[in-house]
Amino acid sequence: MLYISTKYQIIRKDFPFYLGKTAHGGLWVQIKNLPGHLPKESPSHVFLQEIMKWNGWGYSDSRFLFNKKGQAEFTGKRYIIIGMIIPGLKDWFECTFGASLQHKTPATPLLNSSAVQPPTLNEAFVEELKSTGIPFSQDAEDRVFRAHGHCLHEIFALREGKFGRVPDMVVWPNCHNDVVKIVELASKHNVCLIPYGGGTSVSSALECPPEETRSIVSLDTSQMNRILWVDEKNLTAHVEAGIVGQDLERLLNESGYCTGHEPDSMEFSSLGGWVATRASGMKKNIYGNIEDLVVHIKMVTPQGVIEKSCQGPRMSTGPDIHHFIMGSEGTLGVVTEVTMKIRPMPEYQKYGSVVFPNFEQGVACLREVARQRCAPASIRLMDNEQFKFGHALKPQVSSIFTSFLDGLKKFYITKFKGFDPNRLCVATLLFEGDREKVLQHEKQVYDIAAKFGGLAAGEDNGQRGYMLTFVIAYLRDLGMDYYVIGESFETSVPWDRVLDICRNVKARIVRECKERGVQFPPLSTCRVTQTYDAGACVYFYFAFNYRGLSDPVHVYEQVEHAAREEILANGGSLSHHHGVGKLRKEWMRETVSNVGMGMLKSVKDYVDPNNIFGNRNLL
Amino acid sequence: MASKAVYSQRDPMLKKRDDFEDILEERRNSSDLRYALRCYAPVVYKGLCPSKAGTLKSMVLQSDQLHYVIHQVCRETGRAVDDVQEEASSILEEMAHRLQLSTVRFFAFTLSKVFKTLFRSICVNEEGIQRLQQVIQEHPVVLLPSHRSYMDFLLMSYLLYTYDLALPVIAAGMDFMGMKFVGEMLRMSGAFFIRRSFGGDKLYWAVFSEYVKTMLKNGFAPVEFFLEGTRSRTSKSLTPKLGLLNIVMDPFFKGEVFDVSLVPVSISYERILEESLYARELLGVPKPKESTSGLIKARKVLSEDYGSIHVYFGQPVSVRSLAEGRVNRCQFNLIPRHIPKKPSEDIHSFVNDSAYRLVRAQEENMVLKPWVLLASLLLQNQVSGQKRGIALDELTEQAVWLRDLSRQYGAFLHWPEHTPPSEVVSSSLSLHRGLVRISEGRVQLALDKAAPGEPRSAVTPEEELLSQAVIILSCASYRNQALHVFLRPALLASAIHTASSNKKQEVFNSFSFLRNMFSNEFILCPGATVQDFEEACYLLVKTGALQVTQQEVLVTERGHRTLVFLTSMLDPFLQGYQVVCRFLCEEATEALTEKQFIPAVRKFIIKHLLAGRLRYTEVLSSDLQKNSLAALLRLGAVRKIKGAEQGTLKVNTVMVNSLEDTLGGKLPTQKAVIARL
């Protein structure tokens, strides 16, 4: 087995993301100055939006661009970049999409406040709110910022400076009691509330329903970001729901703990959002998904506060009321406080990767790993297109020796082992735990991989694979500068369907693009990102060059719609963790049956008869 | 009934068809040996996992599907797993093909020789070949040729070899296996063998369906089978069999492949090798068991001229597009896909509709030769009782009239453009000189077979009748090639004839009744009554034979000739169904079984023919008799009793009687409709 060993190192000592170079030329992302966390005494409530893009992903100063030489670079001070050039990206970009750096589609640089509809205000509500002293704003920029998630059509419209219905005002409660007051006032004055956490939704969940005639108030939970207590005896922490993932993790790390919940959006997404959408984290194999992590939830609804009376680890007390809350997508109330499991920080972490001759073998290996229940903290399998994508993001190598080694590896795999570079695929791995066990575990997994023709391919490839996850959203913005639009979507599917669904959905995307007049072949790629006993989570990336199309977003939506139909026809679920929102609600009924729909509706009717939480998601 | 706007899109004249290329031309000018040994490197399916015939077998035997069924059989019968496994393995052994390039090369060589002696030309639409080459790379392909002759599947493989396309694996009936050596040769040229009936045998079905699916899914080779299930002895398309079509569509329904391309192929023979063989078979002279020695005896056919063959590779049909909006694939989400399940109602009706559409596609691309028109005219002339036949120039005039009419109806007619019609007619007649007699400038069917000088008394009237029937049925088989062109207008013409008034609604009822009655006889897509009616109206109106108003359907002055021709086309069938009805009413005893039905009805018909009470000798065709029984069973006028005697027929005399009367126009359709239809 080829295994180019590297010096073991804990990369995530501080916090995972740092875009820089490791000893072997690997690329990683780390956040240096953690921005989301501000001193509690900060009077400002708009700090996050000041340092974030209003019409793209992430921080304003952080973005990919092609420099004058046509080489890709990443800007900003927030992510460390040590003289990083990504030489392969331009060629990959041009070849994959038929795009050209000559053809630009820049975004509208400044937010034009006059293009925003003036707010519809409920004067009585505003008056009473004033008397509570809870901060609020009717500023256009504040409102636009909270009127969208990150669906393609949302970002595309913003880049063109177009705004639809936006919230009429924004409120910033500071604690649970503030939320109780706001919800009471909203109920009293019949105002529509839309809870807002990190704004990373990709299901149109944050879009204001255009048919809503009442005043819409965006309830921003970002000021409720404290860890209220940590219970080391029971390993739980009680946290306000507005806290952002990276802050929660960093603050817990300071006292030697972590939650281990790391969704790809964790830089920006909030605890309350995770609960409301049934989020899933990369390391769920060790720590579990959000439903495994929460012990207690407090939510404010128009009927009052819902919570359990104790923190017992499991109860047989009828249907679990947490499951009405998790996945309610802001239609029932606002999650204000959550008790979560915490774990001691892992002693040791190690990345890894395995190259398989083809995707089929890779899936077979993942299935076997799941069967033996020995999945590492994370195991992901990228298909060939995504492997190439990842490859294109490889930074320039510094030494002749590294480039020589790379060449040798490539030679070994393609020539000596006979892997077809157009078929091979790669699995990335992350092991976590105490050192001894990690090494043992690693061997077990590599042994299984070997049975399926897998060759260990080093830590760097593994790291780079995970990096793709974090920079993909920034890359989409780069694509949108050059006529390329795209997005990802996900599903979960039984093991025996994995290969079929991957092939069919990818093929459907290609076919639909062709039929809808897309002039260039699209990027249609997938990866298996989570393994379960009975199935897997599959992620699709889909992007195309829209030159020559008059309404690219419409075409995009039609293709995505077709792709979702294909997923459902192949036994995939409507969503694994992105949620339903408004984007996918047309399929809810067939997904949960008529009776299921009725159950959910009756809960909504009881909890919120006047539709105060009127974002109209889900149902 | 829909509006007239629909018409414009369905104008058959607008049908665009490809040109043909004669592949024998090259064979006549270059070495067959070199051709047989040339480099063969076909394009393959992009998702192909290359596998040998051997690995294919083990894939089948190790499949989840088969595993499941083997264990199921064990549980039900108490047999040991090994034992059942063994049986599955031997079923597969008996079934599987052993495609070998060397055998194909052998066939390429010998068939070149044979084809060159038998046929003037073998014409292929090369654009169709190019389309096929495209789809072979993209999706698993299923080839669906029409089936008129034993020749068909050798011819198909020969063509694909010629065009450097992937050689198909072909579903063949087990009866071929009887021909020891030939069976094995066919096996090595890609045939796999299936038993004719294996109704309840779960294990057999599992092995068979898994074998076909495995080949299809892996893109091992195009799968070829005959939708009609067997060779059509009458040259009419047979109503499609759904078993194999179900199997090849299944991987798509279950998401195991992205799509499957179905390619209808129309093979038309100017003269069918089995011409009189078929006629005899239809008349009850049992078909000789396929045997190698029989085939050698058939050598004398080599000395005859069989004209040309036209092979048209139709537009590939994507199962995915067909199923769009019709099949909910989610129905397979809740049960593991390897557990065999009876197709649901919607799948069944989808497969059935698709099968009809595909057979229609085959029909539409069948090339018709002038002789087909002549045969139709001669048959009608013979019945009208003109003992001396028809004058050659009159026949020519009628043929030209019919040529124009059929073209307007969208027929794919190959009538030599730059040859005077009289020459076209006489050369057609001379190719079929076994069936026609020309004397003193008059043409008639060669019914008086008896060689001059032979004493007539040696032949009984029954024998004479049967020998005449051979000629008539042979001739009818050529007329039948054109039936699909005239069918819908003919049904309308007959409906007008039988309907009690000119009211459009009444004509439609009558049309609908006839269409329903004949849906085992002809290819009539299920549920398309209204479309068919509109199409028929459209064609007859377009050609000036009919005026259709809101309420009425009126035959025009000049339409008379057309309508007479059309009704005469359908008449033998009408009479056939009537006489079967009459037989069932008059002669069917309590103990009549399905097996005895054909001989009994034949006896009844012969009696009536000899007594001169029937016009059409054609009604002796067992095909027609079987179809009419099937129709009566379908309509519930006759029931099969499952009990002591296998398949005893129970006749509902009242209903059969009323059907007979309605067929003859004695009863208005409305009543019959109420009666049961």
UniProtKB/TrEMBL annotation, chain A:
GO terms for cellular component: peroxisomal membrane. It is found in: Peroxisome membrane. The record marks R380 as: Important for enzyme activity. Its EC number is 2.5.1.26. GO terms for biological process: ether lipid biosynthetic process. Its cofactor is FAD. Its main location: membrane. The active site is at Y539. It catalyses: 1-hexadecanoylglycerone 3-phosphate + a long-chain fatty acid = a 1-acylglycerone 3-phosphate + hexadecanoate; hexadecan-1-ol + 1-hexadecanoylglycerone 3-phosphate = 1-O-hexadecylglycerone 3-phosphate + hexadecanoate + H(+); a long chain fatty alcohol + a 1-acylglycerone 3-phosphate = a 1-O-alkylglycerone 3-phosphate + a long-chain fatty acid + H(+). Substrate binds at R476. GO terms for molecular function: alkylglycerone-phosphate synthase activity; FAD binding. Pathway: Glycerolipid metabolism; ether lipid biosynthesis; Lipid metabolism. PANTHER family: ALKYLDIHYDROXYACETONEPHOSPHATE SYNTHASE, PEROXISOMAL (PTHR46568:SF1). The keyword Transferase applies. FAD binds at residues 195-201, 277-280, 329-335. Catalyzes the exchange of an acyl for a long-chain alkyl group and the formation of the ether bond in the biosynthesis of ether phospholipids. InterPro entries: Alkyl-DHAP_Synthase (IPR025650), FAD-bd_oxidored_4_C (IPR004113), FAD-bd_PCMH (IPR016166), FAD-bd_PCMH-like_sf (IPR036318), FAD-bd_PCMH_sub1 (IPR016167), FAD-bd_PCMH_sub2 (IPR016169), FAD-linked_Oxase-like_C (IPR016164), Oxid_FAD_bind_N (IPR006094). Gene3D superfamilies: 3.30.160.650, 3.30.300.330, 3.30.465.10, 3.30.70.3450, Uridine Diphospho-n-acetylenolpyruvylglucosamine Reductase, domain 2, Vanillyl-alcohol Oxidase, Chain A, domain 4. Residues 163-345 form the FAD-binding PCMH-type domain. The lineage of its organism: Eukaryota, Metazoa, Chordata, Craniata, Vertebrata. This is Alkylglycerone-phosphate synthase. Belongs to the FAD-binding oxidoreductase/transferase type 4 family. Homodimer.
From TrEMBL, chain B:
SMART domains: PlsC. The gene is LOC108902778. Its main location: membrane. SUPFAM superfamilies: Glycerol-3-phosphate (1)-acyltransferase. Keywords: Acyltransferase, Membrane, Transferase. PANTHER family: DIHYDROXYACETONE PHOSPHATE ACYLTRANSFERASE (PTHR12563:SF20), GLYCEROL-3-PHOSPHATE ACYLTRANSFERASE (PTHR12563). One of its GO terms (cellular component) is peroxisomal membrane. Signal peptide: none annotated. InterPro entries: GPAT/DHAPAT, GPAT/DHAPAT_C, GPAT/DHAPAT_LPLAT, Plipid/glycerol_acylTrfase. It is found in: Membrane. It comes from Lates calcarifer. Pathway: Phospholipid metabolism. One of its GO terms (molecular function) is glycerone-phosphate O-acyltransferase activity. This is Dihydroxyacetone phosphate acyltransferase. It comes from the Eukaryota. GO terms for biological process: ether lipid biosynthetic process; fatty acid metabolic process; phospholipid biosynthetic process; triglyceride biosynthetic process. Belongs to the GPAT/DAPAT family. Residues 141-270 form the Phospholipid/glycerol acyltransferase domain.
